[in-house]
Structure formats: structure tokens, C-alpha cells
Amino acid sequence: MNHTIQIKQKLHQLKLSGFATALEQQLTQPSTYEELSFSERLSLLLDFEITQRSDRRQQTLIRQAGFKLKANLQEIDYDSSRHLERSVVANLAQGDWIERKQNLLITGACGTGKTYLSCALGHAACQRHKSVKYFRISRLFLALTQAKADGSYRKLINQLSKVQLLILDDWGLESLSDANRHDLMEIMDDRHEVTSTIIISQLPTDQWYNMIGDNTLADAILDRLMHNAHRINLKGESMRKKRATLAQSEHLVVK
User: Fold this and answer.
1) In this structure, are residues 61 and 122 in contact, taking their beta carbons and an 8 Å threshold?
2) The domain containing residue 7 runs over which residues?
3) Both 33 and 105 in a single domain?
4) Which residues, other chains included, contact 191 with Cβ-Cβ below 8 Å and sequence gap of 6+?
5) Tens digit of pLDDT for each residue in 117-141?
6) Are residues 118 and 54 in the same domain?
7) Would you tell me how many other CB atoms lie within 10 Å of the CB of residue 81?
8) pTM over 0.90
9) Most buried among 29, 76, 106, 158, by the most CB within 10 A?
């Protein structure tokens, strides 16, 4: 067995697959690298390994997040009717608000792109190696109910408390039960000033108090959500209707 094969085997044993791939490239293209010093070639190998690990980490975080949409910041529509500013989205995409443990409240009528925007920001957070989890709030409550039944409730609550960015969609779409309110209180209390949360709702924020339905718990939950929150209120026509109209205009009319 020659030395090159032995080196590759040892690299894979050490889980340095990126290093091994880059080494193979250097060996198969010797003229490209022959003028570089040993340290320069070694630096290139290490850079490729670091990049590969970063890419794998990002893909793992995106997969674990469970996003509803495969959203991209570059594809956000900044039509003036939406009242969505590029500078605001650009600042949020940098993730400083997540570092500061702040929240984001996104409101607007059905179809205005709230979920797309939140998922795009979630993807950006994953690219910065932040853990993210997306839930429609009805499915979160279902998961919590099932966890109570099988004894894993505390484990799930602890997991939710550690996610660096929790995205809760369809906030206020359904009325809350007493159990729902207490679950929300548990989650928000654990996450308060520790991690960040995005809330997505068709309801304006001034209607959230009545939606929660219990004065004491509404005060406690909303205090934890709102006091350090950024807010985006999307306007304009439904993005779904807009896309459907554009698609319809592309159809050939056969007479």
C-alpha cells in the first residue's frame, strides 16, 4: 500500500474528509500547486476542510429547523406597497438581534409573505450557525400534548428553551385553551432574554391580549415577547394571488 493511500485512510479515520478531497485535487493537478510552499498548500487543505465542515453544519441546521418554505433573502419582494424596507431586512439578516436575545413580531393580512420572510431570516440564521426551529403553533401545541401523554414534556420544553431562534407561525389563528396558555407561559418564560423568537400573525399586536384570553397570563406572556421586540407589519395584496396572476398571464391561449 503506497503512502498516499495510507494518508487518505488516516484522514478519513480522523473525519477529515474535506482535507482528503482537497489533497486528491492537489495530487491530480500538480502543476497548479507546484509553485506553492508546503505551508501554503497545507493552508489550502485546511481551508477546504473548514469550509466543508461549515457547509455540513449549515445543512444540518436547516434540515433540523423544519422550515415550511425554502426561502431566500435574495428573492424577497420589496414592492413599495408591502412597506418592507431593504435596510430593515438587511439588518435583521446580520443576526445581531439574535445575539442580543431580542424577538421579532411579523404581522399582516393572509398571503402578504409573513411566513416566507420569517423562513428566509431563519435560513440566514442557520448560515450563521444558529439553531432554529419552525412550528405552526397548532402543531406545537399538539406536540406538547403528546409529550405530556408520553412523559417527555419537560424534555421538549427544555429543548425549546435552548433553540436560539424559535419561529411560531399562525399565532392567533385559533383560540387558546387553558393548557395552551400555560404551555406558552412556560416557553416564553424559559426563553425570555435567553434566546430569540419570531411570532407570525394575521392579527395586529393590539389584539393579542384578547386573543390569549386570560388577563394574568396575557400580561406575563406579552411582556416577555414585546418589550424587546422588533416589529414588521406587512401590507399590500396577497403574494399568493399576485404569483397566481403572473402564472396565469404566462399561459398560452389557444383559440
Assistant:
1) no
2) 3-64
3) no
4) 160, 161, 166, 197, 224
5) 999 999 999 999 999 999 999 999 9
6) no
7) 11
8) no
9) 106
